[in-house]
Fold this protein.
Amino acid sequence: MIKTMVVILGLLMITFNAYAKEDIANKIKQQSKELEKKEEIIKKETVRLQSLKKEVEEDIVKYTELLKQIEKSLKQAEAKGNKRLKHVAKAYEAMQPDDAAARLSGLDDKTAVQILLKMSSKKAGLIIGNMKTTKATTLTKQIAKLKK
């Protein structure tokens, strides 16, 4: 009877081991399939990210060029503005100092300062000297602030 029990126990162990091995093999296969699916997802995501990276790099190049064009246009506009301002300053320099002072006093302070800065110091001084004291003081302070 003990021999029979040992044999039965042995058969049970063999059967259990077979089921255990089969279960382990199935789990390994299942995990392998899951890993393959995850690898495929990672590959697709990598391709998508590479495509996005390329788009971003292209956008950076495009916007850098656009920024250069804007800067160039701003410089051109500033140059035109300076040219016009120099022309106006020459016109004020050609006037009698008291006439130029009266006309500059009628302008807003910012414009008057810009015109005075485009003039020779000697002419600007004569014009400021012919202005009312309060206006001359205001413009002089603004010019001093800009020169710093």
In short: Residues 52 and 58 are 10 Å apart (CA to CA).
